Amino acid sequence: MSQAFVPEFPATEAPTMEWDAWGVAESRRHLSPQITTLLQQALGVSAEQSPPPTEADAIVRETALGTPLVHALEDLLGPDNVRTDTATRLRHAGGKSTPDLLRRKSTGEQDAPDAVLLPGSHDEVLALLRFCAAEGIAVVPFGGGTSVVGGVDPARGRFGSVVALDLRRLDALVDLDPVSGVATLQAGATGPQAEQLLGEHGFSLGHFPQSFQFATIGGFAATRSSGQASAGYGRFDDMVEWLRVATPAGTLDLGRGPASAAGPDLRELFVGSEGTLGIITEVGLRVHPVPEHTAYQAWSFPDFETGAAALRTVVQSGSAPTVMRLSDEAETGINLAMSGDIGGDSPTSGCLAITTFEGTDAHVRARYAEATALLAAAGGTALGEGPAQSWEHGRFDAPYLRDALLNAGAIAETLETATRWSNLANLRTSVTKALTESLAAQGTPALVMCHISHTYQTGASLYFTVVCAQAADPLSQWAAAKRAAGDAIIAAGGTITHHHAVGRDHRPWMESEVGALGTQVLRAVKDAIDPAGILNPGKLIP
Amino acid sequence: MSQAFVPEFPATEAPTMEWDAWGVAESRRHLSPQITTLLQQALGVSAEQSPPPTEADAIVRETALGTPLVHALEDLLGPDNVRTDTATRLRHAGGKSTPDLLRRKSTGEQDAPDAVLLPGSHDEVLALLRFCAAEGIAVVPFGGGTSVVGGVDPARGRFGSVVALDLRRLDALVDLDPVSGVATLQAGATGPQAEQLLGEHGFSLGHFPQSFQFATIGGFAATRSSGQASAGYGRFDDMVEWLRVATPAGTLDLGRGPASAAGPDLRELFVGSEGTLGIITEVGLRVHPVPEHTAYQAWSFPDFETGAAALRTVVQSGSAPTVMRLSDEAETGINLAMSGDIGGDSPTSGCLAITTFEGTDAHVRARYAEATALLAAAGGTALGEGPAQSWEHGRFDAPYLRDALLNAGAIAETLETATRWSNLANLRTSVTKALTESLAAQGTPALVMCHISHTYQTGASLYFTVVCAQAADPLSQWAAAKRAAGDAIIAAGGTITHHHAVGRDHRPWMESEVGALGTQVLRAVKDAIDPAGILNPGKLIP
């Protein structure tokens, strides 16, 4: 049993991600010559492109905001908090999906918000929303800019201009109730900032999605984020006790924790609203003491179906570990090849599963014993701590690796869904088939890997990673594959997104999720609080 | 360790409750002469009223539905399924709060729905909603009629007539997915019917609120019911995977289990909508195998604060029992006196707590050990199984006892709220004070008891029971006390209802819960799907 995992924090100040890649330059990954050769031989990947434009070369759309409007915004927020310089605009030009980065690497004109606004209080957000509604300026809440579904695209809708809202100045721990385990955080705090603020008081949120290092509390809430420890601490939406939302029609304070029967839960309308119904400025969150202990155990299962059934047994017992995940055969093999650990602790075939257990010593011991007995009885072979700790150590690296693959001439993209346990195999087969066939038909045979990263009593998520060579037009190449996968997900009874949210990219499938009448309900809510329609146009609501 | 608790089911056919009392006549309770004497001496209760009207004497408002409308409804549903007889109308005349029963016992005219409709399918519900919207007839979904907040009052709103919807014909188990643990039940199935249908396949819902024997699946969902085993199986809203709702604008199928990030969770708008936004006709529910084992342990704590802190420690450990509850000093003492168990197993002072643990043998043993260690360390004295099993045995009896007290000239009513752990003592003191002072000022000193019956990581519910002598006008007497308690709850930061819902009685406090803008959002949703406003007028939405 080891000491609790403490994430490595960057400095207190939140870093800004690179304009044309995930994350920060210091963490950039490079592919080994062996991997490059393997990609070339197995998938026909070759990096014979002209080099992408540097920031100095990038052609950025000119701001459409005239000087009078900029001055009026400066009057509201202060001159330092209205940014129209190209560097800032370019860093708020969109999210970090593979298509986003492909567009960023193109030589054409880069779209960008006409200004980036940095409000310093809830009231300033209210004021700027009223101003933008009156002037007809679209507003895109930027969060940490980690969207992989086009959620922070600078779309103008029917308006002539668009501003991005960056809440980085709202990064405080407003209140901590240690008895109840409830912390109130401002929406602009990033994952590491939140953990640092809470950690000073001995608490943790326990929300570690892959976007953790850059994404914000407000963004987690607005997109129904789900972290890698969701089996233990729940999805982010489970953690939200209440939220404060600024809208063009005023302020909403929603959530009557710990539980209430006072009508519909309006909190659940704004959690997941992706900036289309309001700007979340403060969130009350369930937190827990920093765990005293963490136990790790990795497992090997002969195949994915056996492994999935084993995970199901554990979660349905009501005693899930803190983290519980399972890679399929392809992902297990590739991860092994990437880590260069062949001949080490890891299995050379079958499927790798990871479990971790956090809490007090007694709690960890009891849970570990219960889960271990169930997983062994369900056909698992214990592999020890090693592979589980390795997974934890590298768990925020994948987007950097994606960028390295992209630069090497590959497409490496992910998509995810969820369904009931009884439908999991069917959904996995359908989506794999759709991706494989679509990309093969385009002359770029793909490697499709899958893992389960979030388990529930009634079902689980499926997370797919696709790697193939870039075709001549990689944007349309991926668009076709993504369309095939989305259609397959809906046809097979999955949800179009388990934790990536809807944004622009999943919007075509929203009506399949909620129906025509559900769409009408969403529009009615939006009309009631954003009658001008300035809030994140073109996202989420069909 | 005992065998699992299996609720005693009535016959497969759901019984209809008495028109002027809770439940069925066979289960009626009578007070012992000692209790009657005690009530008289301690609270000045005396039963010197004229006897209430019998059913034959009751004066029932005439039906306002003319023959052509009745015939049109008969064409839609079949002649047997449109009831205008007095007996049926009287049995759908409202819920079962103390004010409801006081009105039922009055000699004035009894209000009642103009007809009781028994649709046999979702499509019939759709058709009758369209008909009622076109004809301007208010529609009250009746569920099992167990509301204690005026939720099923035959209110007409701006319409001339009102019908009650009784979904008793929709009582089937539509589908069971044993692998995923998801059952689809029609909304009219009662608690015992649902358990019986599931039990035949080895499954259980595990939802046992005090209304269990008569309330329906649709009603549980529409009111955010919470059962006595909520610590183990969650609130009813936690169990809802998806629901089908019939509205005047069409059908909604909501919920993309097990989890989704596809926007706002519209399911959470209709769960808790209390018939104001649509009629729930089918619900997909998380179920679990009938537990193999149940362990019981009762505890005594020196005082309520110590006991509450102990429960908090257990639930915050992440390992809650299936049931965990704590009575305050007053309730502990009164229950002891009522049970006649003085000198038996139960403690004669302090506070009684109950824990039960359900599941597999290994799960029960592990959880029992973990909780027992925590409760003992937090100052609890273990009392053994006896008092916990006694509680379970009598757990559906309280409403019958309330009726006996009412007939003896007492008011015995309950109300409930919830708040964070750090605010629990303050809320309990405030509400107790408000009730005590209001009733004392009216010349009827009251006994106010309290228990915690639902615990969460961040807080708990408080359930108050009030007993006092009936004043000359008991309806206004209780209305004043209830108003004082509701105002105290909101002022002290509680929710106006933890699991009784809003109905008519809590509606004055709804705007305090969701704010003016939240109210506007609710109205916008209602206007979008019920533009005529026929659905349960006067309830929930201010």
From TrEMBL, chains A, B:
EC number: 2.5.1.26
Superkingdom of origin organism: Bacteria
InterPro entries in alphabetical order: Alkyl-DHAP_Synthase, FAD-bd_oxidored_4_C, FAD-bd_PCMH, FAD-bd_PCMH-like_sf, FAD-bd_PCMH_sub1, FAD-bd_PCMH_sub2, FAD-linked_Oxase-like_C, Oxid_FAD_bind_N
Keywords: FAD, Flavoprotein, Oxidoreductase, Transferase
Region described as Disordered: 90-115
GO molecular function, a single term: alkylglycerone-phosphate synthase activity
Domain FAD-binding PCMH-type per the UniProt entry, residue ranges: 109-290
Enzyme class of the recorded protein, top EC level: transferase
SUPFAM superfamilies, per the entry: FAD-binding/transporter-associated domain-like, FAD-linked oxidases, C-terminal domain
Family, per entry: Belongs to the FAD-binding oxidoreductase/transferase type 4 family.
PANTHER family: ALKYLDIHYDROXYACETONEPHOSPHATE SYNTHASE, PEROXISOMAL (PTHR46568:SF1)
Protein name: Alkyldihydroxyacetonephosphate synthase
Species of origin: Prescottella agglutinans
Species lineage: Bacteria, Bacillati, Actinomycetota, Actinomycetes, Mycobacteriales
